[in-house]
Amino acid sequence: MKHSTAHTSISIMIAGALFSLLAFSASVNAQTKYQSAGGVKLVIEGTSNIHDWDMSSDKGTVTAVFVVNHSGVPTGLSVLNFTVPAESLKSEHKAMDKNTYKALGTDKYNDISFIASSATIKPVNASNYILVAKGKLTISGVTKEVVLTANGTMNPDKSITYTGSYQLKMTDYNVKPPTAVLGTIRTGDGITVKFNLVLKSI
């Protein structure tokens, strides 16, 4: 009887220790959902046989789930989804916009999106770090595996600012580089996508 009681007491102590360890671990690293505060700012820069050009949008949205430590600093990422309406991209010339939407097939493919499949966060110092996210970028209905890199800064209010850029070829996504003025202005295939956003916990 005493042996059984002692065995039960030890089991309870072990279970209690395991529960405390799990509770401590959860308090040290918890998952927190974030979303973009205001629109995600995008600038697409390209070239042509006449001059360089750019298009911009501030209508993008991001949702993310970070693993954060007890200080609220991100240490990992489990979810990252980005979407921007393709026709929110605007240049200084309506004709250019119209030709771009036609090339993107926006009548059929409304959005440009990125969904992360994995990510790592590398600290630079106490408030800055580098986020590297691997995932699927979809443009004009074509999806490619890409790796995006962003510089992150933890702000005093615990929001996070991200900036970065990514280079791609339009033809990789079956997008024919737009032309203008009866084909006399021809854009180059390569473009650079720059992004700037602020995420806040919800």
Verbal overview:
The chain is of the alpha+beta class and 202 residues long. It has a single domain, classed as Lipocalin (Beta Barrel), CATH 2.40.128.110. Helices cover 19% and strands 55% of the residues. It contains two helices and ten strands, in the order H-E-E-E-E-H-E-E-E-E-E-E. The protein has helices at residues 2-28, 94-104; strands at 30-36, 40-48, 53-68, 74-85, 111-123, 128-139, 142-154, 160-169, 179-180, 185-201. Strands 1, 2, 3, 4, 5, 6, 7, 8, 9 and 10 form a ten-stranded antiparallel β-sheet that branches. It is elongated, with a radius of gyration of 24 Å.
Mean pLDDT: 88
Count every beta strand, where a strand is a DSSP E run of 2 or more residues. Answer: 10
Radius of gyration: 24 Å
Distinct helical segment count: 2
Residue stretches low in confidence (pLDDT < 50, at least 5 long) are 13-28
Order of helices and strands: HEEEEHEEEEEE
Which architecture does the CATH hierarchy give at level 2? Beta Barrel
Structure keywords:
202 residues; Lipocalin; 10-stranded antiparallel β-sheet; 2 helices; 10 strands; elongated
Outline the fold blueprint.
Blueprint: H1 2-28, E1 30-36, E2 40-48, E3 53-68, E4 74-85, H2 94-104, E5 111-123, E6 128-139, E7 142-154, E8 160-169, E9 179-180, E10 185-201
Antiparallel strand pairs: 1-3, 1-10, 2-3, 2-10, 3-4, 4-5, 5-6, 6-7, 7-8, 8-10, 9-10
In short:
With 202 residues, the protein is α+β, with helices and mostly antiparallel strands. The chain has helices at 2-28, 94-104; strands at residues 30-36, 40-48, 53-68, 74-85, 111-123, 128-139, 142-154, 160-169, 179-180, 185-201.
